[in-house]
Amino acid sequence: MSLPLSGIKVIDFTMVQAGPACTQLMAWYGADVTKVERPNGGDSTRHQLRDIPGADALYFTMLNSNKKSIVIDLKKPEGKAVLTKMIETYDVFVENFAPGVVDRLGFPWEKIHELNPRMILASGKGFPEGSRFSDIKAYENVAQCAGGSASTTGFWDGPPTVSAGALGDSNTGLHLLIAILTALIDREKTGKGQKVHTSMQESCLDLCRVKLRDQQRLERVGYLEEYPQYPIRKDGKYGTFGAAVPRGGNAGGGGQPGWVLKCKDWQKDPNSYIYMTIQDTNWVRTAEAIGHPEWAHDPKYNTARAREPIFFDICAEIEKWLADKTKYEAISILRKSEVPCAPVLDMKELENDPDLRANGTIVEVPHPVRGTYVTIGSVMKFSGFTPAKVTGSPLLGEHTDEILASLGYKADEIAKLHAAKIVDPAVQVAKTAADAKIVAAGEAKARAAKTHAAE
Ligand SMILES: CC(C)(COP(=O)(O)OP(=O)(O)OC[C@H]1O[C@@H](n2cnc3c(N)ncnc32)[C@H](O)[C@@H]1OP(=O)(O)O)[C@@H](O)C(=O)NCCC(=O)NCCS
């Protein structure tokens, strides 16, 4: 079956998470994605946080499936010539190297546009072009701190806190992908490519939109009633409002208050909690569900306004009701009364979640060196097509010769490029699973010998 992006050829000059997350999705939806990697190891995530000696780390395999890999030394003229040929014949060039890297390699946007006016260049950086921070390199938490997430996450008595969600990394990849798809549609109409750019700071801020909403509300009225700091609650016990949106703990971000509540055995299980929302329109059924039917029509409880000052007292009462219930038991009761709620699911539970496995969100992928690993497939489902089956990520330089041949290089020219170390991968490329195990074992041995020598 032809997938929607089939025929779109992508130069994937990306690394770490933001860029690779974008191009991996393109590959799942049919694009022909070729990862251009540097000599001496390629994408740094191949080696970071390794759990199997010699094998590409999960950080890499989980963000680079369904791609090809070519290793080119872009600092050498012959390597630049290979990339030039790719630019002339590909559709999209995605990059998230440090500011100025692509220009320094000799491929500024003007040059790319001149080589191929239909080419779309997608650039992801830490900060916007023209920003006073634009020269700074960035990783996830850098973006969360600069993008409004850290200052508004955590508890009132703790420091700015980062979220586990990749708001700076994968989220930037998603924004970049939306920009690329929009530019591809625009190209259909105009025949011309363009440069699209987004930054981790902006992509993170985009997801903190409601905090900017809150900032303006705070400036206008001086308080935010859904935050624990709301002055009618306990005289500053939960902190006070200052000039900027404070950290609100687990307060609900919308107009419906909620909190994380302890369930049975929370002392032993760090994730024995539920999130429960008190929906104003559902108050009567909520009060009945939590074992307090007498609250349903009591004016001390039966309006949102009445509940605001005593919200945490109500939470404490609900926790008494939850004390003998597991999070799953609690949810099965609350859902019957249409209470918006969820168990706090830990990563082990999610890894083995039967529904997420059944619908292709959690998938098992074979890899020639690692064996089978678990990853997250396309979380977007389509009625018209099924995204590509997730395959293992490419070994470093696995498709070097294939790509060169597709660009018109003859066998003797390819051999010359190898001999001159223009396209040689830094580690031997395994051609079969058995070879791969030998390469992996060799790397592990070399590392052990090095460690031994150092001791
Ligand atoms: C992620 C980041 C911090 C990593 O920094 P880094 O590991 O120091 O890598 P850089 O991006 O500086 O690039 C390193 C060098 O590799 C070189 N390189 C990359 N591919 C190459 C290739 N195929 N051949 C030759 N050299 C290559 C670059 O030219 C650069 O060299 P230079 O500094 O001499 O110009 C940085 O790339 C960055 O800030 N990127 C933008 C934001 C981003 O996406 N962050 C990651 C989010 S997941």
Low-confidence stretches: 426-432, 441-455
SSE class: alpha/beta
Give the strand content. 5-15%
* Mean pLDDT across residues: 93
| Strand/helix succession | EHEHEHEHHEHHHEHHEEHHHHEHHEEHHH
Proportion in helices:
25-40%
Structural overview:
The chain has 455 residues and is an alpha/beta fold. It contains 19 helices and eleven strands. Helix 1 (18-28) packs across helix 8 and helix 6 (140-146) packs across helix 9 (200-207). The longest helix is centred in the C-terminal third of the chain and has 22 residues, at 433-454. The radius of gyration is 26 Å and the shape is elongated. It has a six-stranded parallel sheet, sandwiched between helices. The chain has helices at 18-28, 58-61, 77-89, 101-104, 109-115, 140-146, 149-152, 170-190, 200-207, 209-221, 283-289, 304-307, 311-322, 327-334, 347-351, 354-358, 400-406, 411-419, 433-454; strands at residues 9-13, 32-37, 68-71, 92-95, 120-125, 195-199, 258-262, 273-277, 341-343, 362-365, 373-376. It binds coenzyme A. Coenzyme A binds next to helix 4 and strand 5.
Draw up the topology in text.
Elements: E1 9-13, H1 18-28, E2 32-37, H2 58-61, E3 68-71, H3 77-89, E4 92-95, H4 101-104, H5 109-115, E5 120-125, H6 140-146, H7 149-152, H8 170-190, E6 195-199, H9 200-207, H10 209-221, E7 258-262, E8 273-277, H11 283-289, H12 304-307, H13 311-322, H14 327-334, E9 341-343, H15 347-351, H16 354-358, E10 362-365, E11 373-376, H17 400-406, H18 411-419, H19 433-454
Parallel strand pairs: 1-2, 1-4, 2-3, 4-5, 5-6
Antiparallel strand pairs: 7-8, 8-9, 10-11
Helix pairs in contact: 1-8, 6-9
The structure holds coenzyme A.
Coenzyme A is lined by residues 16-18, 36, 38, 44, 72-75, 96-98, 101, 104-105, 124-126, 137-139, 169, 200.
